[in-house]
Amino acid sequence: MSETPSNLAVVHFCEDLLSRPSDQRKAKDILEIMSRIRHTSALFNSLEDDALMNVIKNAGFLKVKKDYVIFRQGDEGNCFYVILKGSVTFYARKPDELCGDFLPTAHQEMGAVRSTQERVAYFGAELGSLKNGRSFGEMVLMGGQKERNATVIADELTELIIVNRELFKQSFQTYDLEWKEKSSFALTYSLFISWPEALKGLLIENLKMHKISFGNRVVEQGHPCHSIFFIAKGAAKVLSDPRKCRDQFKKLNPRAALAKKKEVNQGDKEEKIELNAMEDLVRPLTVIEKRRRRIEHGFVAMETRLRQREIQATTIGPNDIIGDVEMILELPEFCASVECVQNLEVFELDKSSFQRLIARRSPKTLETIRDIVISKLKLRVERFHEIPLFKYLLQRAEALPQSDKHKTVNQRHSKLPDVKPLLNQWKAQAKIVKRTPLLGKQVKPESKRDVFTSKEKETMNSNKKRKGKRLRGRSERKDPNKPKQYTAEEFRALKKQMQAQGKMIGRVPDD
């Protein structure tokens, strides 16, 4: 989607203003771009006006070309970055690999690191990407860690706002508190304890903290599932609406729903009684039935039953997960509602981050969550055996074969060749290639194989003949519309021939 000329003018004005020294950024100009800067990132959106003006006035600005390194794993840092425009990718090596010989300064000599093979060989596995509006590098400002835990490379022309340590303390106090809470959660949560530091840093950057008061709902059954929630504090109850369960079962497995209805119509009385018990929760009551039940159960009890047509499946608390069933089974909607019964503190991770950080990078964590999902569904099937949705979900979870448990692992890296032979090849070339003392030119190494078999010679000769035929064929092709170009000797011979025939042409001076 192309921007309008007015928006482009504002963008250029923002770049120009941020490129100036801080003492040349006037308050009038800052007010003009403040609304745009505020909407570029959720980090700026939460700041007060005075704090945001202080950031715009004193922040640094950096433009990074495509495929260039912003910082490397192990570098000391005293600032973090906010992506104003563009995108970046993270790469990291394991702690035991950092001590090895992985050519740490090779990218400085070659400039841009364009090939994915080179990136993986030099800087380790790919962890994920961030686009405009996101921030990275906060770990060096939050805790005692001073070294970068990952290498960051720009995937396109990227514009960055730089926030140093002093400016961070002045303007991001609220963000500092939230970051510390997210860091303490990620470092102490049982699922993430064994993760490497670089992956934990990305997890902290992608988490969103929410505080939910009593009586409010975290998720609603039937609403689209876009995130997974990890409970840090508080308690909640899981509710299921049998009517919505019936509709969801029909959507997910329409053939089984139709077959079950036919079996019940032809079955015995016990199955029909079970179905009637289920329908008692699902179908709306008539006016006469409502009056009879009010007389039997009382007015207040009947009104409460009519308002609350949901059944409580279980109660959850700290270290529990909301939305894990939907994520593991890739369901489009939540299959249960979660209502807060004690003030909740949850951390949200969106679906794309879940796929990138957990499903692709942490297969053990994914397997643990899958086991939790199976145990949850077994308990629900035991308590509510008349609801077919829970049985169907349990069958799907148990039917995942061993080869498909980690099917979401990054297929792009699985297709890449092993980088160790590539590294060995570069090291061998670096040892063989020498420089002459006078001219500084590289001397190409001699071929290791000077003797070839007869079959190899025949193949080489046939390839040379084919190449010669192709070149001759190209040279013999002539454009009929293009006039022929004569050399000086050919032109003199043609002139003499035509003079002999009595046809004079223009005189050409001889060389």
Automatic annotation (TrEMBL):
Region ranges (Disordered): 443-488
Biased composition (Basic and acidic residues): 443-459, 473-488
Basic residues bias (residue ranges): 463-472
Residue span, Cyclic nucleotide-binding domain: 43-170, 191-239, 295-358
InterPro entries documented for this protein: cNMP-bd_dom (IPR000595), cNMP-bd_dom_sf (IPR018490), RmlC-like_jellyroll (IPR014710)
Full protein name: cAMP-dependent protein kinase regulatory subunit
